[in-house]
Amino acid sequence: MVVDYLPPFRFPFINTSMWYYAKSKNKIGPISDAAMERLYLLGEIDGNTLVWRRKKWGPFSETNFYKRLTSAPDDEFKKNLAKKTGIFRTFLVSTAIYMMFCAYIMKNRLDQCVDISLGKLSQMDIKISASEFNMTLVLSQIILLVLVIFLAKAMFNWIKFSTEFTLFSSRSYKMSPYFSAWAPFIPFFNLIYPCSWMVQTCSAILETIESEWSPWDIALVALWWFFTIFSFTLLAIDIFFLPSLFKTNIFNLVLYFGIYSYLVTAFACLVWVAMITRMYHLFMTTYKNFSSAEA
To answer: Is 61 helix (H, G, I), strand (E, B) or coil?
Structure first.
């Protein structure tokens, strides 16, 4: 007999394997880790259920997989989460600072355009100014691309690890760590799923520590998601549409839009910092509760 339902796998960092277990003197299987977890959560098996592992029968409670299902994250897991949160937060702050610097460059160019319109610069100064601005623009875009790549990697690792941490604390939480981490990079799909992930993760953690959503938490999530979508939209316009308008008679408007989009993105990064700091605080509160319960 083979179990015909396979729920989402909560622990993708555990090697997938096949199981047999005994019920009413019958041998049932083979089934996956995910199916075994599902049976355990439904109460159809428990720690005393005999399972076939390593060429012998033994209690499910003696397996490493059972210990994963019933134990809290260890100190090493906590340190890794703190490390990944710190790295992600550092790149967010760095991106915010760099966005402000890019806005400053745009502002200087805008001031030069005003001087040109007032006839305060010679033709030679105008050519030198335009050449310097073009070189600065290309260099800034390259630096920004490199920074965004590192930021994206830090975000992927943080979301994946945060999801794994939540899986330890909430038995009802079923979101996949890898899928959650990739979702922000999937076009169109990332308009909904990351927000859903954030809400469900916060809800699971708050439920674990027996707390409820506060007005501050609701406002923070709403602010975080609005500025995330808003900044992504502005940057997409700035990167893919505005460069073709640099030589037109609306050059000043392009600069204004660039300054605006960079400042909004910088603010969005700072909101992200506030959001992940709040979540990290919730994670650590959960960890302390687990540690106290085990002690």
So the answer is: helix
Cα pseudo-dihedral 119, 120, 124, 128, rounded to 10? -110
pTM of the model: 0.70
CA–centroid distance for 166 within its chain: 13
CA–CA separation, 218 vs 120, rounded Å?
52
How far CA 94 is from CA of 60, 74, 147, 199, in Å, comes to 48, 31, 8, 26
- 269 close to 98: Cβ distance less than 8 angstroms: no
Instruction: Please write the tens of the pLDDT for every residue from 59-114.
Output: 888 887 777 666 655 667 778 888 999 999 999 999 999 999 888 888 887 777 76
Residues ≥6 apart with Cβ < 8 Å to 230: 264, 268
- CA–centroid distance for 88 within its chain: 9
For residue 249 the two structure tokens come to 């008679």
Asked if residues 287 and 80 have their Cβ atoms less than 8 Å apart, the reply is no
Count CA atoms within 13 Å of residue 13 on its CB side.
13
> Distance of CA 240 to CAs 107, 185, 189, 198, 245, Å?
21, 17, 20, 29, 11
